[in-house]
Design a protein that fits this description.
Oligomer: single chain
CATH architecture: Up-down Bundle
CATH class: Mainly Alpha
Number of strands: 2
CATH superfamily: Transmembrane di-heme cytochromes, Chain C
Mean pLDDT: 91
Strand order of the largest sheet: 1-2
Radius of gyration: 19 Å
């Protein structure tokens, strides 16, 4: 047996940048600072594109195939939590896997609708000029409708963290900072340092590419 990391470095960097960007997008939206709101949104878009790819080429715990499990596993996981059973888990639990998908999907929906949105006067999304004005206004409505859903998903996330900490005596935050450790069988393949560096480069490239969408906006003069 040997020690291995639960979460690889690119995934951890993604996680904290994603959290900061979500908070930033909410704060700038409430302050009606649309330029910064757009920047946070584009950062989220690049991060989500990275996370989608990393869900196929990242480490074992980062891959969708590892943590997306069927209803039986989900119900068993819920039963274990209610019974205060906390089996050692390498990565997401069955419930946590689907919660992760919700945490990724809702922001992706918000970013996608925001790209084509207009407020009708002061600010347009980077791709709002690609659709009719009335359609861009509808996208803005769709964007705003999803805000309560985002808050609900975030509340569920924080509630789950509190349940794990108080009920199951497990702190989920430190492993997402340090990577955590688990006893891996000798045949398990750890993600190489070179591949993790490639992952960080991919993340940076995709975030940069997302921000370049602002170049598609029509000139004002």
């Amino acid at each position: 047996m040997r020690s291995s990391k639960i979460w690889d470095l690119p995934l951890r960097v993604f996680h904290w940048l994603f959290a900061i960007s979500i908070i930033g997008s909410i704060a700038t939206g409430k302050a009606e600072n649309w330029e910064l709101h757009e920047r946070f949104g584009l950062t989220i878009l690049g991060l989500l594109l990275f996370r989608f790819l990393w869900g196929f080429i990242g480490s074992e715990t980062a891959r969708f195939a590892t943590f997306l499990k069927g209803p039986a596993s989900v119900f068993q996981n819920l039963k274990d939590i209610l019974g205060r059973k906390s089996a050692p888990e390498k990565g997401h639990s069955a419930l946590g896997g689907w919660a992760t998908i919700a945490l990724l999907f809702i922001p992706f929906y918000l970013v996608s609708t925001g790209l084509f949105s207009t407020d009708g006067t002061l600010f347009d999304g980077p791709l709002a000029h690609k659709v009719k004005f009335e359609t861009a206004e509808q996208f803005a409505d769709f964007h705003h409708y999803a805000e309560p859903v985002l808050f609900l998903v975030l509340l569920s996330h924080f509630t789950a963290m509190a349940v794990y900490y108080i009920w199951l005596k497990k702190n989920l935050i430190p492993p997402m900072i340090t990577g955590g450790d688990y006893e891996a069988a000798s045949q398990d393949k750890a993600l190489s340092v070179k591949w993790q560096i490639c992952g960080l480069m991919l993340l940076a490239i995709l975030v940069g590419a997302a921000h370049s969408l602002t170049l598609l906006k029509p000139a004002l003069f």
